[in-house]
Automatic annotation (TrEMBL):
Residues 461-563 form the BBS7 platform domain. Residues 344-453 form the BBS7 GAE domain. Residues 1-286 form the BBS7 beta-propeller domain. The lineage of its organism: Eukaryota, Metazoa, Chordata, Craniata, Vertebrata. This is Bardet-Biedl syndrome 7 protein. Keywords: Coiled coil. InterPro entries: BBS7_GAE_dom, BBS7_hairpin, BBS7_pf_dom, Beta-prop_BBS7, WD40_repeat_dom_sf. Residues 566-597 form the BBS7 helical hairpin domain.
Amino acid sequence: KVVVGDQDGVITCFGIKKGEAVPVFKTLPGQKIARLELGGALNTPQEKIFVATGSEVRGFTKRGKQFLSFETNLTESIKAMHISGADLFLCASYIYNHYCDCKDQHYYLSGDKINDVLCLPVDKVNGITPVLACQDRVLRILQGSDLLYEVEVPGPPTVLSLNNGNGGDSGEEILYGTSDGKLGLIQITGSKPIPKWEIGNEKKRGGILCIDSFDILGDGVKELLVGRDDGMLEIYSFESADDPALRYDYALSESIASIQGGCVGKDGYDEVLASTYSGWLTGLTTEPVHREGGSGEELKLSQEMQSKISSLRNELEHLQMKVLQEREKYQQSSQSSTAVSSVPAFSVNDKFTLNKDDASYSLILEVQTAIDNVLVQSDVPIDLLDVDKNSAVVSFSSCDSEPNSNFLLATYRCQANTTRLELKVRSIEGQYGTLQAYVTPRIQPKTCQVHQYQIKPLSLHQRTHSIDQDRPMNTLTLKGQFSFAEIHSWVVFCLPEVPEKTPAGESITFYFQNTFLGTQLESTYRKGEGCFKSDNISTISILKDVLSKEATKRKINLNISYDIDEESVRHTLKLIHPKLEYQQLLAKKVHLIDALR
């Protein structure tokens, strides 16, 4: 049996008989389901269904009878959930809560947004060890309501999973996937982390959204099933424990929201089941599809296949009729004297991230129905780069940048059935503003949604765990009558990947790296004082301009002082030199092409 939770708040449970989906139960719609987990008493089959919707957790039996409705005290909606026996772990944005038998046990406030939560298996590891995957590229290991230690990972972790589904032999092994497509395994011991292996994203594929462990090859070792946000489904096998290798991959057309291995369609044949963003469920089977044909015989479609095809045809005709009826009904009601225009609601799944490799931003837009066109507008100078996977037709409109600072106007017209569009933009540091995407899907009546993305003054900087302290550094120091929250809001305005919430404590230090030039920035600040160090004098100059502008807006008097290291200029020019050399060589080669022709 398969159970699915969707954005309309419906839980559907079904099985497959003779290639047809047979429903077991279906619940009524409500708030969208953020998480769905199976649970039950420890060491028994996990057959109870738990879902998180808004700030509530509900439980259903495998027959569809609701036995639990638990309204938590969380003010925000639940983003992540993990269940282990009677223990329930919930996370909303920055808050982690642990309940046992629906009674509040522990609470923790994280420094950055929490993307996923997990607990090491209680039967193997003594005590409860929760692990939080946080947006600032850190896994936080808790003990009770306190932080035990932090583990740095190579990208913002989006998903956690127990190795082999049980934490491995020790019960301490955790798999993580990051939003920039990296995958790794870490052993979480009681005192320190032991990294086991890590796979980079060489093929520049999408971010990882879901992981499952399942023995799909039937060799007695569980393989790793991975789903990515660009629709890539991957199966990794293990030659040895610390050496995963990509065995199979399969491209779906939309982001994979969830992936599971199991036996669904036919006894004796395992499947990989994936659900994608717009609500499709896809099964990949180990059953051999090609039947052996005799010598020179005409292969006849089996009865089963023929009946399946005709039933699909009937279903399609039925749907087409229904669409026509509804369309006529809408036309009549919209022309009547009591007409009410109805704007169809649709949800857009968007992601705007900086790629470290080529210092460009990826804007990924995904809609539940086919996209008709996307209009991109920007009030700062940016370049649109080509994306291989993108089949949309782009046309640029000329725009006047003078009166209303309009620097870019481009339209992407999508081919039929495109539900996902990926764009790449490159910004210029020091030029900041807003990028807007107007998304119009193919639905009647025509509706458009606008999504806005901030391009920050230091847009090409990315958070990092540490920096090289030996470089020649320029320093910018600010002093004035400002609060910790105020200077933090200015830093959020200037730099990407800084949590919006003011950090706990008196002061905070963040490290950044410029993805384009490889220069670095260290920012340390507290109430009334801020200190910014960088080996790139331009970074310091941009910060000075923006920070003084922000302070002037709030009528705060700033005392700004610099300490400039002359050596840093030579150092940064050395970093820029190979890039210039490459461009100059390229220009020379382009000149030679004509002569060679």
